[in-house]
Give the backbone structure.
Amino acid sequence: MSLYFMALVLFCIGVYGLVVKKNLIKKIIGLVIIENAVNLFLILTGFRTGGEAPILERGMEAVPEHFVDPLPQAMILTSIVIGLGVIALLVAISVRIYEKYGTFDVTKITELKG
């Protein structure tokens, strides 16, 4: 249960960074923390204490009682790849914004029109 709480704490830290901070780079870091917290939570949903991989072979004497769910693991691999693409796009957009306006500060960027 404490691991679920830690995922919630990570999520809250990411939301804080995304909402409160004015720097674009800090907002991107907050988004990365949120993504990792959600990935951690989804991995924890598939975890079973004492669980084994769901691989059955011929001639097995006993079938294990608890299996680890492999579906969240596959979903997280996809989520990591998609998240990496999104973060790369955000960093590229941030670099272009810095080249145009000369700052990462969101309040100064919104003041400039044109």
Remarks:
- The chain has one domain: 2-49+68-111.
- The domain at 2-49+68-111 is CATH 1.10.287.3510 (Helix Hairpins).
- The first helix runs from residue 2 to 20.
- DSSP finds four helices and no strands in the chain.
